[in-house]
């Protein structure tokens, strides 16, 4: 039975944008596994798989259902050990948790402040209402207030990637000579920014930009085709 990945989209199903779903898209391609992606709007998520999860990604693999991108990566390594590893064993899994924490604590809040109104504008009206309410509850402010410092956030964004930039001066990928799930974690955040705003807001010659472009070209340029 084919693998199904439920992901997140706005009004245009051809533009899935969730950072967490992009991690899994890249992970499945890394593993060389065939899958069908089914993009969903925010308000459609509770209707799939009998309400298995309130959020995506959700992976259906035969009788197995898995939610949460990190849990999906762990499942894929355990279920398909003869395919290229995503986490690189137990030590790699632990280090990948650090990368995930860095991405969600540093990159995701910055992307939210830069892209929140762009994301809203990508959604159908019913999902715009959901997005406004859920972000008001989560952030304690209206989305326009969150976006008020957008220009300053864009200006400050490159400095937040200093550690990654320094590391990429020594190796082509976070995973070393080839990408691992740690790469896809950070890639997912920047792909979220790219799809929602049209840019990653970094100079073209920035080491992080060069790394990101390298990942866009992987797997027959699948990620680059979504814009």
Automatic annotation (TrEMBL):
Gene3D superfamilies: 1.20.1050.10, Glutaredoxin. The keyword rRNA-binding does not apply. InterPro entries: Glutathione-S-Trfase_C-like, Glutathione-S-Trfase_C_sf, Glutathione_S-Trfase_N, GST_UstS-like_C, Thioredoxin-like_sf. Residues 89-227 form the GST C-terminal domain. Residues 8-84 form the GST N-terminal domain. GO terms for biological process: glutathione metabolic process; L-phenylalanine catabolic process. It comes from the Bacteria. This is Glutathione S-transferase family protein.
């Amino acid at each position: 039975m084919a693998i199904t990945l439920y992901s997140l989209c706005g009004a245009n199903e051809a533009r899935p944008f969730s950072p967490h779903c992009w991690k899994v898209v890249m992970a499945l391609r890394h593993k060389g596994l065939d899958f069908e992606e089914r993009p969903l709007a925010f308000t459609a998520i509770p209707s799939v798989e009998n309400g298995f999860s309130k959020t995506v990604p959700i992976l259906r693999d035969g009788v197995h259902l898995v939610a949460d991108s990190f849990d999906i990566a762990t499942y894929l390594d355990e279920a398909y050990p003869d395919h290229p590893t995503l986490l690189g064993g137990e030590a790699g899994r632990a280090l990948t948790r650090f990368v995930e924490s860095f991405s969600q604590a540093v990159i995701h809040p910055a992307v939210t402040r830069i892209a929140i109104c762009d994301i809203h504008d990508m959604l159908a009206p019913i999902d715009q209402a959901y997005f406004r309410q859920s972000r008001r509850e989560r952030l304690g402010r209206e989305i326009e207030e969150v976006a008020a410092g957008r220009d300053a956030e864009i200006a400050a964004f490159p400095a937040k990637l200093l550690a990654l930039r320094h590391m990429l001066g020594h190796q082509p990928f976070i995973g070393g000579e080839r990408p691992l799930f740690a790469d896809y974690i950070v890639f997912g955040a920047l792909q979220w920014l790219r799809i929602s705003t049209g840019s990653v807001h970094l100079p073209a010659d920035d080491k992080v930009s060069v790394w990101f472009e390298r990942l866009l070209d992987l797997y027959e340029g699948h990620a680059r085709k979504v814009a």
